[in-house]
Amino acid sequence: MKRTRIEPSGKDQTYNVNNAVTPVINRKQFMNNTKKELRRIISFDSSYIVVYSEGYIHYSCFTENMHPLVKQNLFKNTFICEGALTQSKPFIIQHHQINIFSRFPLSLLHKENGFKSACIVPLSVNNVLTGYLVMESFQENHFHSPEMFEKLADPIAMQACYILLHEKLNNELIPSSVPESYPFEEMIGKSKPLLEVFDNISMVSRTDVSVLLLGETGTGKELIAQAIHRLSSRSTKTLVKLNCAALPPQLIESELFGHEKGAFTGAIDKRIGKFEVANGSTLFLDEIGELPLELQAKLLRALQEKEIERLGSNKVIKVDVRIIAATNRELDKEVAEGRFRADLYFRLNVFPINIPPLRERKEDIPLLATHFLQQIGTKLGKVFSGISPEVLQQLSAYDWPGNIRELEHVIERNAILCKGNYIQELHLQTSSHIRSETGFSIKTWEEHEKEYILYVLAKCNGKVSGAKGAAQALGIPPTTLESKMRKLGIKRQHYPGTRD
Questions:
Q1: Class of 17-173 per CATH?
Q2: How far, in Å, CA of 36 to CA of 54, rounded?
Q3: Which of 35, 50, 329, 448 would give a disulfide with 289, using CB separation of 3.0 to 4.6 Å?
Q4: Handedness of CA 377, 381, 382, 383 (dihedral sign)
């Protein structure tokens, strides 16, 4: 019985496959989505993907159900794909041709497993052969027109390699004693700037030096700090975090170093500081640029001497703490203007990592948008089928002054406003201005920033500071937000809601 084939246009095929596989970083879901989209084009009985890894001496296999002999051969034969290395275009093999590719896994297409024909699609990334997609059938002469799969190879190859990268990092990041819910997979993207960040994470994590994360608000500095810690030898202990902008100056010292009972008014109990809690682990100091000058000297001493004293005590406590600091300020300029100690800056800046803003990695926007849509759908109890190419184009044309956090808020808003399960229209205060030379007009950076701040203020019911306030949502100190509001001319009457 001949099987029905569905052959949509090449453009639609590529878009459907790309939209189905790019947000996925789990092998099983990746293969399920890939098989589902491929079966819209042609039927088959079995499929798997073989991808080169570790310098072309090891092969990783993506499959859900595979014949055990194929699986065994894939993992034991290091030259498994040798017979097909000369093939750069999709091709078809019939049962009687097996000996031509005797060292390819298809050598197992014989009576023992019953497959009669197969279509093999080479997978390439940047014109470098990466592996193969294999579709098999129990019927002879089942496959025709293999060239129809050529355009589909790119998104499949890119995502398979991306999944391998995540698995490699996660295998290094997560020891067996650490729960598998580690959020490194939230770092979505495969652009060159982000892959450079991944490389830096991998290099510095195996050392014990201080790391300084430099990037705009909303770029994911805390996720990177978590990744560095998980990959380090200190990963068996909890990462300790302190936001230097979240507390008034008089409380930061106590938070860092602890205090004895009665050390100051209100110190009714002894308190262990973050340095002691982080002993043997990593201390993440977010917004380090907001640390008052007088505390910078005490922090420097703790880093140099590897010892602290609690407030109200003369007892010296030895500590072994690795520091990861983060800031959205240009600390070299802060040093030049006398607002940050040069000696502390040099102590922290041993290994700086520059985190690119979203406008410099726009190719990641569709991945991030789809990922956030899936997450928000789970929260809303709603299954979304995707985002239209037109909306993705609009999202990619915008410069995102609030970076990933702003994109997440926009996707959340559009998910709530979406009447169906497919986002076809972008609801955004700035959407009418997201225009390029092909029909899109561009607003100034200040206009983008002003509208985003107004959007967040409205979302936070007009609350600027404190818990659930706009400053907290934006990840910046209230003083910084208030300064921006004054500069941009944002006044109380411009946004609704409760006042601080």
A1: alpha beta
A2: 29
A3: 329
A4: positive
* 179 touches 226 (CB < 8 A): no
- Tell me the C-alpha distance between 57 and 482, whole Å: 56
Give dist(CA 232, CA 484) in Å, integer: 37
Per DSSP, the three-state class of 58 is strand
Residue 147: other Cβ atoms inside 10 A: 11
Of 149-163, 165-179, 265-279, 417-431, where does the model show the most confidence?
265-279
How far, in Å, CA of 145 to CA of 159, rounded?
24
Q: How far apart are CA 285 and CA 123, in angstroms?
A: 43
Instruction: Yes or no: say if 17 and 154 are a contact pair by the CB < 8 Å rule.
Output: no
- Among the listed residues 471, 482, 490, the one whose alpha carbon sits nearest the alpha carbon of residue 217: 471
> Which residues, including other chains, have CB under 8 Å from residue 131's CB and lie 6 or more apart?
49, 50, 51, 52, 59, 81, 122, 123, 157, 160
Burial 331-348 (b: 16+ CB within 10 A, else e): beebbeeeebbeebbebb
Torsion of CA 284, 287, 289, 292, to 10 degrees: -90
d(CA 310, CA 271): 9
The domain segmentation of the chain, as residue ranges, is 17-173, 192-354, 360-423, 445-488
Please give the helix or strand (H or E) that residue 210 lies within, else none: none
Q: Is 54 exposed, middle or buried (0-12, 13-18, 19+ CB in 10 A)?
A: exposed
The class (CATH top level) of 192-354 is alpha beta
Identify the pLDDT of residue 29: 80
Identity of residue 304: Q
Write out the two tokens for 171.
């295998």
Nearest Cα neighbor of 142 from 94, 105, 98 is: 94
DSSP 4: P
Average pLDDT of the chain, as a whole number = 78
Here the tokens at position 438 are 């092909």
The whole-number pLDDT of residue 298 equals 94
CATH 1.10.238.10 fits 360-423, yes or no: no
Mean pLDDT of 37-49: 84
Look at phi and psi of residue 316 and say left if phi exceeds 0, alpha if psi is from -120 to 50, else beta.
beta
Q: Given this model, what pLDDT does residue 490 score? A: 86
Alpha-carbon distance of 302 to 69, in angstroms, equals 59
Residue 187 has pLDDT above 60, yes or no: yes
Question: Which H or E element spans position 394?
Answer: helix 389-397
- 36 SS3 class: helix
User: Is residue 282 classed as helix, strand or coil in its secondary structure?
Assistant: strand
pTM above 0.70? no
Report the range out of 181-190, 345-354, 386-395, 426-435 with the highest average pLDDT: 345-354
Residue with tokens 């190419």: 389
